[in-house]
């Protein structure tokens, strides 16, 4: 729990009569932002210590006998783990977690160095997968968000290494990440962890389509499965965190479809982008039904409008640019409307930014071919500045009116 979260939730507490407005302000003042900076220092110190040790060992590595190297690797790793456990038991959990993270890093470094020492040949990403598994084990042992992020990075490194070195997608690594870190993130109810997990899954869905030479749009099936799962979250924050990354990719694809629409996208990019319609549309429809049931269960059926970004306009022979442009505007206006309805300033600002981006996309698409380029940039700049000023002014008025109404109640 931090100051920003309390500030965001306080109006809802006042509205429900849990606390008065004065009591809510006193609660907010109990949370000082500067305390977070102190907690980060041990973690930064542990990173600098790791870099110092690595640079020292690397500079003298060739001069050390092989047996001494092996003993040194084991001693360093065990020293970090033992030191971290000792500090955690003494109550210094932040510095202890920092040392545990160094133990995880040194474990992976040891695997790589041992492979080099004995000239071991790797035929898959098993060594990186073992490293990532150690990171996931540390997460469950110490219940740390910092260790969770490290484990997430390691599982992404598994896929990058597997693709770059062997040209294959590690299904084992993907399943382990989803099961181990997905389960932990779901139970933690941490917005940060869920958001990072969603981003990693979406990125690996893209890696999957690239490695298997599948049409690009197949990535939306596992990505939107993650979105549909988010609709079964009870907490609003967790639901949005899980659904953010798939929606970002869908929004970016909509922008791409607006600019790339035309005969060439239907002919030259057909195989690279479009899956077979019967399989793809059937899977997408099934996910839409699952998502709709989750939204109905939460009483948030209006959120089904977010699926406008996934409508497969690209299968049409004409009007693709216009339809995707309308989808971008509808989605941005929906986010803006929900932000006003929920009194959530972040969502209002996000909807404003998306609406401005959609307006810029429409302006470029409609005027680039026939308008003088200098005039194009001048008029576009004036329009964006004016639109930004108008929307920000309107946002401030609405939020101020809502805050005053809450205080009077």
- Could you tell me the strand content as a percent range? under 5%
Secondary structure tally: strands = 0
Uncertain stretches of 5 or more adjacent residues: 34-38
Percent helix, as a range, is over 70%
Q: Helices and strands: which structural class?
A: mainly alpha
- Helix and strand element order: HHHHHHHHHHHHHHHHH
Q: Enumerate how many helices there are, as a single number.
A: 17
Distance N to C terminus? 26 Å
In short:
This protein is mainly α and 409 residues long. Among the domains are: 1-32, no CATH class; 36-121.
Could you explain how this protein is built, in words?
- InterPro entries: DUF2157 (IPR018677).
- Residues 12-147 form the DUF2157 domain.
- This is DUF2157 domain-containing protein.
- The protein is an all-alpha fold.
- Among the domains are: 1-32, no CATH class; 36-121.
- 80% of the residues lie in helices and 0% in strands.
- It is built from 17 helices and no strands.
- The chain has helices spanning 3-15, 21-29, 34-60, 66-90, 93-117, 126-142, 145-166, 171-188, 191-211, 220-230, 236-260, 263-267, 270-273, 277-298, 320-342, 345-367, 373-408.
- α15 (320-342) runs antiparallel to α16.
- The two termini are 26 Å apart.
- Residues 34-38 have low confidence and may be disordered.
Could you give the topology of this structure?
Blueprint: H1 3-15, H2 21-29, H3 34-60, H4 66-90, H5 93-117, H6 126-142, H7 145-166, H8 171-188, H9 191-211, H10 220-230, H11 236-260, H12 263-267, H13 270-273, H14 277-298, H15 320-342, H16 345-367, H17 373-408
